[in-house]
Write a structure and sequence with these properties.
The complex is a heterodimer of chains A (110) and B (111). Chain A is 0% helix and 51% strand. Chain A contains no helices and 11 strands. In chain B, strand 9 and strand 10 (101-102) form a beta hairpin. Chain B is globular. Chain B starts with a strand and ends with a strand. Classes of the chains: A mainly beta (110), B mainly beta (111).
Chain lengths: 110, 111
Amino acid sequence: RKEVEQDPGPFNVPEGATVAFNCTYSNSASQSFFWYRQDCRKEPKLLMSVYSSGNEDGRFTAQLNRASQYISLLIRDSKLSDSATYLCVVPPSGTYKYIFGTGTRLKVLA
Amino acid sequence: NAGVTQTPKFRILKIGQSMTLQCTQDMNHNYMYWYRQDPGMGLKLIYYSVGAGITDKGEVPNGYNVSRSTTEDFPLRLELAAPSQTSVYFCASSTQGLEQFFGPGTRLTVL
């Protein structure tokens, strides 16, 4: 099993829709996670941190399910500007290496 | 704060040429990383450093070298460029376990 797995998509959704992505991870000792956003040919930027209680920031909600070892990202009222690739990231646990998923591509259509 | 800066933004090299990709951060982070990202693919770790004078290999270190003489700077050296090194290179820094901050990237083409 890969350390971090994401559905590559693309998820094509109309403006205003709600969309959710999942990310599964293999290390049960991982305590926190990140969702990053990467626009085409740009650097990844932090979208949200995810801890045991989850996190909400405006239209974005992140949840952690420890029992099933996945984190989710929910985007409500999708905007055209939400079109990007969303990366799931597991920070170091006993090492110095961040584990990046390959990303889920979202296209919001007018 | 500039965050993480990288130079150059773009570069075209001929096979066998050498170059150094520069990376500087002004956040006093101990941890610095070099990644490469091929088109449509995920990030692959080339080298990382946990502090000045300490570096270690990542997943794909062959063909690259790094040094870390100061907290701020983490240059990546390509000695004999090959077409397989055509990629986008991102430098990142962090405090242990916390958010990584990325530079804007260097787009390298080797012909």
